[in-house]
Design a protein that fits this description.
The complex is a heterodimer of chains A (114) and B (110).
Chain A (H helix, E strand, L loop, with lengths): L3 E4 L2 E4 L5 E7 L5 E7 L5 E9 L2 E4 L6 E3 L9 E3 L8 E8 L8 E3 L3 E5 L1
Chain B lengths: L3 E3 L4 E4 L4 E7 L7 E6 L5 E7 L3 E4 L2 E6 L4 E6 L8 E8 L6 E3 L3 E6 L1
Parallel strand pairs in B: 2-11
Antiparallel strand pairs in B: 1-3, 3-8, 4-5, 4-9, 6-7, 7-8, 9-10, 9-11
Classes of the chains: A mainly beta (114), B mainly beta (110).
Chain lengths: 114, 110
């Protein structure tokens, strides 16, 4: 089945540790996105990538890093510089064709601090 | 004005009721809009795309008022399974990014 796969579903981070969240898609989508959602809040954009080997900061990029070495993969690293990492992290991708297509989401990773 | 603004609710309605939510947006150049549904602790899922004046899909109708810069979502004959948070989403100019509203919570009771 085509889709977006995020792993792990739950992740715990120790103080001072970097952790990496995986996002893989087999939809042949060019554009991929990472969002953070805090309880009772909307989605906030962390990073996005329109094409392989290129990515841009979103609204809350500080303390995060990404890479886009392959079309199907867009991993997000939550670094120790991110002092409040506890949140629900969502990866999305957007299809080809008309530029105003909606995004489709993976089922998310919940990150907590130990 | 915020880029996308929604009434957080919750809207409490009985089964079978008709309910409508509004969403206002600030970018007058926006041409397309989306409504997503998000269940508790789950990812958002696309409910409807709105590319012109409106869209209808079964019990759901989305309408766009460009002059007043708002879009609405109407749900007829509400079901218990409609209980969720409904997110209004507007692309930025150039469509590189989507801006998500904080959502309107709907609770449908028996």
């Amino acid at each position: 089945d085509g889709g977006i796969t995020q792993s792990p579903k739950y992740l715990f981070r120790k103080e001072g540790q970097n952790v990496t969240l995986s996002c893989e898609q087999n939809l042949n989508h060019d554009a991929m996105y990472w969002y953070r959602q805090d309880p009772g809040q909307g989605l906030r954009l962390i990073y996005y990538s329109q094409i392989v080997n290129d990515f841009q900061k979103g609204d809350i990029a500080e303390g995060y890093s990404v890479s886009r070495e392959k079309k199907e993969s867009f991993p997000l690293t939550v670094t120790s510089a991110q002092k409040n990492p506890t949140a629900f992290y969502l990866c999305a991708s957007r299809g080809q064709g008309r530029v105003d297509q909606p995004q489709h989401f993976g089922d998310g990773t919940r990150l907590s601090i130990l | 004005r915020k880029e996308v603004e929604q009434d957080p609710g919750p809207f409490n309605v009985p089964e079978g009721a008709t309910v409508a939510f509004n969403c206002t947006y600030s970018n007058s150049a926006s041409q397309s809009f989306f409504w997503y549904r998000q269940d508790c602790r789950k990812e958002p899922k696309l409910l409807m795309s709105v590319y012109s004046s409106g869209n209808e899909d079964g019990r759901f109708t989305a309408q766009l008022n460009r002059a007043s810069q708002y879009i609405s979502l109407l749900i007829r004959d509400s079901k218990l399974s409609d209980s969720a948070t409904y997110l209004c989403v507007v692309p930025t100019t150039g469509f590189q990014k989507l801006v998500f509203g904080t959502g309107t919570r709907l609770l449908v009771s028996p």
